[in-house]
Specification:
Elements (H helix, E strand, L loop, with lengths): L4 H19 L6 H6 L2 E5 L4 E3 L7 E7 L2 E7 L3 E6 L6 E3 L7 H8 L6 H9 L5 E4 L3 E7 H10 L1 H25 L3 H11 L1 H6 L2 H8 L3 H33 L1
Antiparallel strand pairs: 1-8, 2-7, 3-6, 3-8, 4-5, 4-7
Helix pairs in contact: 1-6, 3-4, 5-6, 9-10
C-alpha cells in the first residue's frame, strides 16, 4: 500500500541522509530521483518480489523486517538472510550491471558462462515481510541514469556494490562455522533479531531442523545459567572472606 503526506516526507529525508552518507557528498538532481520514488507499506506475509520474476526495482528498508528465501531441494524455500532497517534490496537482474554483462558475453572472464547466467537470470530470491514494514521503492534505471550524468551518483552505486561485496565476504566466513557457532554469534551480535523471527525461520536460516535448534538453544541457556550461578558463588565467597 502506497502512503503519502508526512510519512512520505520523513521517509524521503531519512533516505537522503542514508544515500548521501553512502556517496560521501550531496547528490545533485535529487528532485529527479525523488519524483520517481514511492513509499510502500507492507503487512506481514506480503511478498515484495518473488523468485523467477523480472523485477526492476530497488528497495531501501525504512522500517520492519523481511525474510529472503531461495528454492532448494525442489520446492522447499530456505531462508538465507533477514533484511531489516537500513538494508538495500534488489534482484540481480534489476541492477543493470552492463559492464559485467559485456565482459561475460565476450568471454573475457574465466567464469564467463557462470557470470552470464547470473546477470541474465530472473530474481533468485523470494522476499516476504515478517513484520509491518515500510520500504522506499525506485526503478534502478533512474539511479543508472543519474549515475551516467553525475560522479556523485556513480560514487553512491559503487559504494552500494562494495557494501554488497563486503557482506558476501562476511557471509562466506559465517557459513564456514557450525550451526551452533552461528546461533551463538547471533545471540551475541544480534540478540534483538532472535526475538523478531519464528523458530522455524531461524532454523531454516541456520540450515537445521526445529528440533536441532531447540537443543542448541537449551544447551546455550543451561551454560548461561551455570555461568551465572558460578559467578554468584564467587561473589559470595569474596563477601564471606571480607567479613
Amino acid at each position: 500500500m502506497a502512503v503519502d503526506g508526512a510519512v512520505t516526507g520523513h521517509a524521503m529525508r531519512s533516505l537522503r541522509l542514508l544515500l548521501e552518507a553512502y556517496a560521501g557528498c550531496e547528490l545533485p538532481q535529487w528532485e529527479v530521483f525523488a519524483s520517481n520514488v514511492r513509499v510502500v507499506r507492507l503487512e506481514p506475509g506480503t511478498v515484495l518480489f518473488s523468485a523467477g520474476e523480472h523485477h526492476p526495482y530497488v528497495y531501501f528498508v525504512q522500517r520492519g523486517l523481511f525474510k529472503a528465501q531461495l528454492l532448494s531441494d525442489g520446492d522447499r524455500l530456505t531462508t538465507v538472510f533477514f533484511p531489516e532497517e537500513g538494508d538495500v534490496l534488489a534482484s540481480m537482474a534489476a541492477l543493470g550491471i552492463e559492464g559485467v554483462r559485456r565482459v561475460a558475453s565476450r568471454g573475457l572472464h574465466p567464469r564467463s558462462e557462470t557470470l552470464r547466467a547470473a546477470v541474465e537470470a530472473e530474481s533468485i530470491h523470494t522476499v516476504t515481510a515478517i513484520e509491518p514494514s515500510m520500504v522506499v521503492r525506485v526503478n534502478y534505471r533512474v539511479i543508472d541514469h543519474l549515475s551516467a550524468q553525475h560522479l556523485q551518483w556513480l560514487r553512491l552505486t559503487t559504494t552500494i556494490a562494495l557494501m554488497h561485496a563486503t557482506t558476501l565476504q562476511a557471509d562466506a566466513g559465517w557459513l564456514r562455522s557450525t550451526p551452533e557457532q552461528r546461533y551463538r554469534t547471533l545471540l551475541r551480535e544480534q540478540p534483538g533479531l532472535l526475538q523478531r523471527v519464528t523458530q522455524r525461520d531461524l532454523a531454516s536460516f541456520l540450515n537445521i531442523t526445529d528440533v536441532a535448534l531447540s537443543r542448541i538453544a537449551k544447551r546455550v541457556r543451561e551454560e548461561a545459567i551455570a555461568t551465572s550461578a558460578g559467578a554468584l558463588v564467587d561473589e559470595n565467597e569474596v563477601a564471606t572472606a571480607s567479613a
